[in-house]
Design brief:
This protein has nine helices and ten strands. The strands form two sheets. A six-stranded mixed β-sheet has the order 6-7-8-3-9-10, with helices on both faces. A four-stranded antiparallel β-sheet has the order 2-1-4-5, with helices on one face. The protein is globular, with a radius of gyration of 18 Å.
């Protein structure tokens, strides 16, 4: 890990009406880190993740990305998001576009590449995610695991500095989970900075450099995977792990 801080979160808060979902989260994410976020349903982990690229607008606190406070008014959020890849639970592919067009759409539209460059990059990425023959296919022709690998390729097409994953395997059939986790492992091995909300404890233990437990809108504990799983200090985390492991 190089120690360069990519994301700095200070006292992040998010309310939905009277309901306080995030209650003051502060953390730093450094270049090359893989941070796995776990916790019970409804604890605020997805809201936290979506606040990092302002898909959710925080009620209070700040997010600083590569030295720029992105929560400051007047920030060009779309420009920031070009460098923060996001992979969702439900793939979010355009059903009416081929796989290649799904991957090339954003880089071309945003003027980052011309069509030819984007197509070349798409071919590279399809090879990278193990689907080199799917350029002309449509999303409906693919399995869930293949769709999620395409969604990851689409994110990579923007050459992001950090990738956010919001429960990327929870919509998949069990036998397809492995192929997506395998790809994520490869990305981690290549040095991609990743923040992953996940229910996959094996992935958190094996691939993450740090595991974070969020409950009721606060970070209850964060540590290296070994310490986190083998010597959890927080009582709530101990209870949670006893149910999921």
């Amino acid at each position: 890990m190089s120690g360069n801080v990519l994301l700095e979160v200070k006292d992040l808060r998010k309310d939905f009406g009277d309901h306080s979902v995030l209650q003051g989260i502060s953390t730093q994410i450094c270049q090359g880190e893989v941070v796995a976020i776990i916790g019970p349903s409804g604890c605020g982990k997805s809201t936290f993740l979506r606040s990092l690229n302002l898909l959710e607008t925080p009620t209070g606190g700040s997010v600083v990305f590569e030295g720029n406070e992105i929560t400051a008014s007047g920030t060009d959020v779309n420009k920031i998001r070009q460098k923060i890849g996001m992979v969702f639970q439900q793939f979010n592919l355009f059903a009416n576009l081929t796989i290649e067009d799904n991957i090339t759409l954003a880089p071309v539209k945003l003027g980052l590449m011309n069509k030819e460059q984007a197509q070349k990059r798409a071919k590279e990425l399809l090879g990278r995610v193990g689907l080199p023959d799917k350029a002309d296919a449509y999303p409906a022709m693919l399995s869930g695991g293949q769709k999620q690998r395409i969604a990851i390729a689409r994110s990579l097409a923007m050459n992001p500095d950090v990738m956010l994953f919001d429960e990327p395997t929870s919509a998949l059939d069990p036998e397809m989970v492995g192929e997506v986790l395998e790809l994520m492992k490869e990305l981690a091995a290549d040095g991609m900075t990743m923040v992953v909300v996940t229910h996959e404890m094996g992935f958190a233990r094996e691939v993450a450099t740090r595991v974070m437990f969020i409950d009721e809108g606060v970070i209850c504990e964060e540590n290296t995977p070994q310490e986190f799983f083998e010597h959890p200090r927080n009582q709530r985390l101990q209870d949670f792990l006893s149910k999921v492991l």
